[in-house]
Amino acid sequence: MDTNYRMRPANAKAVDTLDLAHYHAAGGSVSEAEFSIIESLEGVDEQQWQALAGDNPTLAYRFLHTLHTTRCACPQTGWTPRYLVMYRNGVLHGAMPLYLKHHSRGEYVFDHAWADAFHRNGIEYYPKLLSAVPFSPVTGSRLLARSTEDRALLARAVLQVARQLETSSLHILFPDEDDRQALAAAGFMLREGVQFHWENQGYADFDAFLAGFKMDKRKKIRQDRRRVFDAGITFQHLAGAAITPEVMAFFYQCYVSTYLAHGNKPYLNLAFFEQLRAQMAEHIMIVLAQRDGQPVAVALNLVGGGIMYGRYWGTTEFVSGLHFETCYVQAIEYCITHGIARFEGGAQGVHKMSRGLSPTPTWSAHWVADPRFAAAIGDFLAQETAAIEQYIDELAEHAPFK
After folding, report:
1. pLDDT tens track of the chain, all 402 residues?
2. Where in the chain is the domain with CATH 3.40.630.30?
3. Report field, pTM of the whole predicted structure over 0.85
4. Which of 92, 129, 265, 331 could form a disulfide with 170 if both were Cys (CB 3.0 to 4.6 A apart)?
5. Are the CB atoms for 74 and 25 separated by under 8 Å?
6. How far, in Å, are 54, 123, 129, 151, 170 from residue 189 at the CA level?
7. Pairing of strands 33-38, 5-6
8. Which CATH superfamily is domain 201-340 in?
9. Cα separation, 278 vs 149, whole angstroms
10. d(CA 263, CA 252)
């Protein structure tokens, strides 16, 4: 049955309208839907958004809206919000965090070679259209929907958005498994990547976790921990109201120094983290390393839906083993103590395997308007996927476990 589309919900500021009248719903009838592309979440009901976003803190209304209001993700930084929202009878039934991008920074899925190929052939690659959480290589839904049917509808509708905005391409980063299936069915090309995640096997305590390691690997972790503690370092796990403005200020000092040490400008400003602490402290867990009561290093993690997401770290001095202990070992110990099911260690980092994180496939989905480039990229992805899967198999052979 044909699906009827209307263009604009009354409670959202539309900056573009969609001509989707020729589209059909995937599998059966769907009640009338209203689509808009909006430039801000300001007119969207927070509770309705949260009903779609679930417990993933990086998809929370306040997290995304704060990225915009603190001008971390805004047109001036190359992130122009163009969210796709879908309403039925005034109720939000679907949404996508969507941006016009004028560069490829802050994405963690690298398409610089594609942009270069466009440029060498005299074709503009930017602006492109991107569905992602800015600066966050965190897996989660990008097709926020109340039903499987709505998810499939969004996957098709966003292709029409890309065509209507006349972008070179559309990229959806780190979607979850349900999204991946819907995107593949809509005709997107899939790209495989790898991150390193830790899964909680119901360990009674950290020693029970270590018991699963090969003897030499277990010994190495204990030696590294001993070096840190012998240096006089102690740790605090701070969550919720225990995260004071002073702790957040120290964290930001370390966060900035980490970026500058690698020759990069920080993506996020202090105002963002201050707002995050004020509005979402229940989703933050900070590991604070101290010596004689003075802070030395820090790691900021986000928590929600039974998952901890390792995000940022920094230190004021070098101590052997401090990075691993602060970022990974303390996080795993916290997850065991609090019954958290999974710890995602962030982008890249084969070195994380030695601390018990395992290679885990991640995905992105891509559509390219020019059929010549689409065919070339499709061939590249087929070869890359085979190489990634072989790489994951090879990594698994070097796992530290018995």
Report:
1. 233 334 343 344 455 555 553 344 433 335 578 899 999 999 999 999 999 999 999 999 999 999 999 999 999 999 999 999 999 999 999 999 999 999 999 999 999 999 999 999 999 999 999 999 999 999 999 999 999 999 999 999 999 999 999 999 999 999 999 999 999 999 999 999 999 999 999 999 999 999 999 999 999 999 999 999 999 999 999 999 999 999 999 999 999 999 999 899 999 999 999 999 999 999 999 999 999 999 999 999 999 999 999 999 999 999 999 999 999 999 999 999 999 999 999 887 888 999 999 999 999 999 999 999 999 999 999 999 999 999 999 998 899 999
2. 5-195+361-396, 201-340
3. yes
4. 129
5. no
6. 26, 21, 15, 17, 10
7. parallel
8. Gcn5-related N-acetyltransferase (GNAT) (3.40.630.30)
9. 36
10. 17
Please enumerate in sequence order all residues whose Cβ is within 8 A of that of 272, keeping only pairs 6 or more positions apart, or say none. 66, 67, 70, 72
Q: Give Cα separations from 162 to 76, 98, 178, 326 (angstroms).
A: 21, 10, 21, 42
User: Cis omega before residue 127 (within 30°)?
Assistant: yes
- Please provide the size of the chain in residues: 402
Element (H, E) at 25: none
Residue with tokens 């921990």: 225
**Contact between residue 68 and residue 81 where contact means Cβ atoms under 8 Å apart:** yes
- Count CB atoms within 10 A of the CB of residue 386: 11
Rounded to whole angstroms, the Cα distance separating 302 from 57 reads 7
Is the distance from CB of 314 to CB of 252 less than 8 angstroms? no
Strand partners, 37: 16, 84
- Inter-axis angle of helices 371-396 and 112-120, nearest 10: 150
The H or E element spanning position 220 is: helix 215-230
**Rounded distance, CA 249 to CA 246, Å?**
5
C-alpha angle with apex 373: 132 to 102, nearest 5 degrees? Answer: 40
Place of tokens 């070096």: 227
Return d(Cα 28, Cα 39) in angstroms, integer. Answer: 31
Instruction: Please tell me the CATH superfamily of domain 5-195+361-396, with its number.
Output: Gcn5-related N-acetyltransferase (GNAT) (3.40.630.30)
CB neighbourhood size of 393 (10 A): 10
Structure tokens at 338: 């609090």
Where would I find the beta strands (DSSP E) of 89-233?
A: 91-96, 99-101, 128-131, 144-145, 169-173, 189-199
